[in-house]
Amino acid sequence: MDLADITYFFDCCIGHWSIERTYHYIAQQEVERSHTDFRVDAITPELRRKVLADNGYGDVDNTDALPGFQLAFHTVSDKGEEVSQELRALFVPQRQEGTVLSGDYLRDRAYEEDRPLISTFTYDQSTRELLMTTPYTRVVSVDSILLVNPTTRIRRILNYKRPTEGETMDTLTLVGFGVEQKVSRE
User: Fold this and answer.
1) CA 42, CA 51: separation in Å to the nearest integer?
2) Using CA atoms, how far apart are residues 107 and 88, in angstroms rounded to an integer?
3) Are 128 and 147 in contact (CB under 8 A)?
4) How far apart are CA 75 and CA 39, in angstroms?
5) How do beta strands 100-107 and 82-97 pair?
6) N or C of the chain: less Cβ packing under 10 Å?
7) HEC profile for 62-93?
8) Superfamily (CATH H level) for 4-183
9) CB–CB of 104/12 below 8 Å?
10) CA 101, CA 181: separation in Å to the nearest integer?
């Protein structure tokens, strides 16, 4: 597997980001805007092993080469609600078909539920889009980060009502869009 491009993607993500997002709550027919200050740091070898252990994930070859990050963010919505969180994430590529890598996406803490969580990801080297799919208890979140250039990302978040076994995901509960700009902290 060729990890050079996904490694470049995560290297570009390191730093401070200023994020403007719009969330559309489908059932309530409400729109919410938010601003997030986001800090992304490289993940240390010790934290890589901790994320694997927290998720009860088996042995992985070359753990120190796996892409991942540490992040902290603070969000303020236009309604005055504030959310802060820190987490560590690790991506374990398992397959490559053409320009697309896919595998498991592990976190020591999930966004929607405060617990370790294993999700799936795909990364398309030709478009530099990371797509993460997370089945939470009530929703399935499909989160896309498109790296436009090293200082600009486009974010898309689709939350679907979690379908029962065998049914398709077709009921949107939330649609989010964002523009993420890297900022200098000197």
Assistant:
1) 14
2) 6
3) yes
4) 12
5) antiparallel
6) C
7) CHHHCCEEEEEEEEEECCCCEEEEEEEEEEEE
8) Calycin beta-barrel core domain (2.40.128.20)
9) no
10) 25
Domain boundaries, the chain: 4-183
DSSP secondary structure letter of residue 128: T
pLDDT tens digits for the chain (186 residues)? 889 999 999 999 999 999 999 999 999 999 999 999 999 999 999 999 999 999 999 889 889 889 999 999 999 999 999 999 999 999 999 999 999 999 999 999 877 778 888 999 999 999 999 999 999 999 999 999 999 999 999 999 999 999 998 899 999 999 999 999 999 865
User: How is residue 144 annotated by DSSP?
Assistant: E
CA dist list (Å): 22 to 78, 100, 151, 170, 174: 10, 29, 20, 21, 10
Cβ atoms of residues 115 and 109 within 8 Å: yes
Q: What is the pTM of this model?
A: 0.92
DSSP state of 111: S
Q: How many CA atoms lie within 13 A of 110 on its CB side?
A: 21
